[in-house]
Write a structure and sequence with these properties.
The protein is α/β, with parallel strands linked by helices. 46% of the residues lie in helices and 15% in strands. A seven-stranded parallel β-sheet has the order 3-2-1-4-5-6-7, sandwiched between helices. The longest helix is centred in the middle third of the chain and has 29 residues, at 96-124.
C-alpha cells in the first residue's frame, strides 16, 4: 500500500529513541526525508545517519531558539511533536520549579515547534501536524497530575490548530499512547514498587499488555499519509483500549 510519503520532508522532535526513533524509522521505510530532532544524546545523529536523514539539535523548551530552528528547516510536509518528559509524584510533592520542565517540554515545546513550522505550511497550502500526547491527558494520571495537565493541553491545542488551519489544507491530529515499552517506562520500572506500577499499567488496558513503539509509529505515519487526507482535529488512542472499560 503506497502511503504517498516518498520524498516528504518530516521533522520528528524527541526522535532519538523510544517512540520517536520508531516514528523516524517508519517514515524512512516509506521513503520520507527524515529530520531527527534530539536534545543531547549521540543517538540522534547516529539514527539520522543510519536512516539517510539529518539530525537537528534543539531543546524544545527554549522558545526563540526552537521557533527559529524549526522555521530554518524550510517547508515541512509533516511535523511530529513527540518530545516529552515525565516526573511522577503526588501533586502536593511538587513545587512550581519542579513541574516547570514538564510544562516547558510537554506543552510549550509543542507550541514552539508548531509556531516555527506553520507559516511555511500555510504559504505552501498544505501540511500535517501530528502531536504525540498521552492517554493521561484524556483520563488523568495517578501521581502524574502535571504530566496529564500538559498532555491535556496538547489535545486541546491540536483541535484548535485543526480549526484554524483547515482553510490552508493543513491537518492536525493527536496520537495518545498508553503504556509503551520505552526508556521512560523502564525508569518507572526501576522506581518504588516499579514492577507493580508497570503491571498496573498493563492491566489498565483491554489488551492486558504493554504496547510497542512501532505500534504508535504506525498510527502517526498513517495520519501523515495520503490515506488520512480527510482526518483532522481527531484524537486517536494507541493504548490497547485504555479507558474504554478495562
Amino acid at each position: 500500500m503506497d502511503l504517498g510519503l516518498s520524498g516528504r520532508r518530516v521533522f520528528v522532535t524527541g526522535g532519538a529513541r523510544g517512540i520517536g526513533a520508531a516514528i523516524c524509522e517508519c517514515f524512512a521505510a516509506e521513503g520520507a526525508e527524515v529530520m531527527v530532532g534530539y536534545r543531547s544524546s549521540t543517538e540522534g545523529p547516529e539514527l539520522a545517519e543510519r536512516l539517510g536523514g539529518s539530525a537537528v539539535k534543539l531543546d524544545v523548551a527554549e522558545p526563540q531558539a526552537t521557533i527559529e530552528a524549526v522555521a530554518g528547516l524550510g517547508t515541512l510536509d509533516v511535523l511530529v511533536n513527540n518530545a516529552g518528559v515525565d516526573d511522577m509524584a503526588f501533586f502536593t510533592e511538587y513545587t512550581p520549579q519542579r513541574w516547570r520542565a514538564q510544562l516547558d517540554i510537554n506543552l510549550e515545546g509543542v507550541l514552539h515547534c508548531t509556531l516555527g513550522a506553520l507559516p511555511a505550511m500555510q504559504a505552501a497550502r498544505g501540511g500535517r501536524i501530528i502531536n504525540v500526547s498521552s492517554e493521561a491527558g484524556r483520563l488523568g494520571s495517578y501521581r502524574g497530575s502535571v504530566y496529564a495537565a500538559a498532555k491535556g493541553g496538547v489535545i486541546a491545542f491540536t483541535k484548535s490548530i485543526a480549526r484554524e488551519n483547515a482553510r490552508f489544507q493543513i491537518t492536525a491530529n493527536n496520537v495518545l499512547p498508553g503504556p509503551i515499552q520505552t526508556p521512560m517506562l523502564e525508569e518507572n520500572r526501576h522506581g518504588p514498587k516499579g514492577d507493580l506500577v508497570v503491571e498496573a499499567m498493563a492491566n489498565a488496558t483491554l489488551m492486558r499488555r504493554i504496547g510497542a513503539p512501532e505500534e504508535v509509529a504506525a498510527a502517526v505515519v498513517f495520519l501523515a499519509s495520503a490515506r488520512a487526507s480527510y482526518i483532522t482535529g481527531e484524537t486517536l488512542g494507541v493504548s490497547g483500549g485504555m479507558g474504554t472499560g478495562a
